């Protein structure tokens, strides 16, 4: 038996919650990972054959702490194998295009008939209805029509985007998890399951709520790179250092700004921050000052201040930042540095991350622990 096949339920605030994840890519697996991080017993239903991203499953950290069973959903008894899991589950996550799960015989209707308390979570980019519901897409395309993509970047440059964090994981995974846990609360009180339709376009649009309020109040221009928080302000942005690295500046409040310009050494020469007509001059002065020292030197200068300045680190550098190291924000499992489970709980702390699930490695243990009668899981 492999090491993966010996895994069982883990500790954490969601201990005892059973989740069926129909294998996919992106926001669905990340949502299931978050539930597994918090203690849920997540069983991922993988299909035979090559993995979707072509990644070695042993390195796919979004599958950490889960268990995997291998089911051929196109075989005669594939749907029944999934429904046997569903009967014993609290939550289900699927990320297919609309009607695909229905065609496979594992859509909401047969699942809820088998388990009326089930919360059936559907993760898509466009949602289950609307003119684009059946279309393909990826993070950047989902962000574009919501206004969220157009926020990021300088006014004279194309919109910027932080990999697929904003759409797939912030607008998608996190909203799916909120929906699943909210519906789970309802199911525990009433015995009534339901379908959660989590669309990246909905979540990403919801993330812009504060900015819509600011725009309505006249405090936000509907143009990229011209506002306080989108790079328009010279004291909210990133600046290059002498060694080609960057420092991030967020000195918004006056007292933080005063400390910022003092430590930067431009207190007596920089234009006033309220002189909007000289903001480009102020930006140039800040940039000139930052280019006089390395990132490490500026990090030391601002280390013990409230100037709201921090070094811009890479993914490999981040685990070694002193504050993140002290908090254990990153951990090491299986020789790989990775983010630790978040958030943190005083009474029900999450267990350290488990190894990524290997496709089909857990058929026997899942059959045992979930008391599955179907021979395909033996």
Give structural notes.
This protein is 32% helix and 14% strand. The protein has 378 residues and is of the alpha/beta class. The chain has a six-stranded parallel β-sheet with strand order 3-2-1-4-5-6, sandwiched between helices. A three-stranded antiparallel β-sheet has the order 7-8-9, with helices on one face. Helix 1 packs across helix 6 and helix 6 crosses helix 7. The longest helix is centred in the middle third of the chain and has 26 residues. The radius of gyration is 24 Å and the shape is elongated. The two termini are 13 Å apart.
Succession of helices and strands: EHEEHEHHEHHEHHEEHHHEHEEH
Low-confidence stretches: 1-6
| Residue share in β-strands | 5-15%
Number of strands: 11
Q: Rounded to an integer, what's the Rg over CA atoms?
A: 24 Å
- How much helix is in the residues? 25-40%
Task: Please describe the topology of this protein.
Blueprint: E1 18-22, H1 27-37, E2 41-46, E3 67-70, H2 78-86, E4 91-94, H3 100-103, H4 108-114, E5 119-124, H5 139-143, H6 165-190, E6 194-199, H7 200-207, H8 209-216, E7 236-240, E8 246-250, H9 254-264, H10 279-290, H11 295-302, E9 309-311, H12 322-327, E10 330-333, E11 336-339, H13 363-369
Parallel strand pairs: 1-2, 1-4, 2-3, 4-5, 5-6
Antiparallel strand pairs: 7-8, 8-9, 10-11
Helix pairs in contact: 1-6, 6-7
């Amino acid at each position: 038996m492999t090491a993966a096949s010996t895994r069982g339920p883990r500790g954490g605030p969601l201990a005892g919650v059973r989740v069926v994840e129909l294998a996919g890519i992106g926001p669905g697996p990340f949502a299931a990972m978050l539930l597994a991080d918090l203690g849920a017993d997540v069983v991922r239903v993988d299909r035979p054959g090559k993995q979707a991203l072509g990644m070695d499953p042993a390195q796919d950290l979004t599958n950490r702490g889960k268990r995997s069973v291998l089911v051929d959903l196109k075989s005669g008894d594939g749907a029944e194998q999934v429904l046997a899991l569903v009967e014993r589950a609290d939550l289900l996550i699927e990320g297919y295009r609309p009607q695909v799960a229905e065609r496979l015989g594992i859509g909401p209707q047969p699942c809820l008939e088998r388990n009326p308390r089930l919360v059936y979570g559907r993760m898509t980019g466009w949602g289950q209805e609307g003119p684009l519901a059946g279309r393909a897409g990826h993070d950047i395309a989902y962000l574009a029509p919501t206004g969220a993509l157009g926020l990021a970047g300088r006014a004279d440059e194309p919109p910027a985007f932080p990999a697929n964090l904003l759409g797939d994981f912030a607008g998608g995974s996190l909203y799916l998890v909120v929906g699943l846990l909210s519906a789970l609360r309802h199911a525990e009180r009433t015995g009534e399951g339901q379908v959660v339709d989590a669309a990246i376009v909905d979540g990403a649009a919801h993330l812009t709520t504060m900015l819509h309020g600011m725009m309505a109040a006249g405090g936000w221009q509907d143009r990229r790179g011209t506002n306080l928080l989108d790079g328009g302000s010279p004291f909210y942005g990133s600046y290059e250092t002498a060694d080609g690295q960057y420092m991030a500046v967020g000195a918004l409040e006056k007292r933080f700004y005063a400390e910022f310009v003092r430590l930067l050494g431009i207190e007596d020469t920089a234009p006033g921050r309220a002189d909007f007509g000289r903001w480009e001059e102020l930006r140039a002065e800040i940039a000139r000052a930052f280019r006089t020292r390395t990132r490490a030197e500026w990090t030391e200068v601002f280390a013990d201040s409230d100037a709201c300045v921090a070094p811009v680190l890479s993914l490999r550098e981040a685990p070694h930042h002193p504050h993140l190291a002290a908090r254990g924000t990153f951990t090491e499992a299986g020789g790989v540095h990775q983010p630790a489970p978040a958030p943190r709980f005083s009474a029900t702390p999450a267990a350290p991350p488990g190894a990524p699930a290997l496709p089909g490695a857990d058929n026997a243990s899942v059959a045992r622990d979930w008391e599955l009668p179907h021979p395909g899981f033996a």
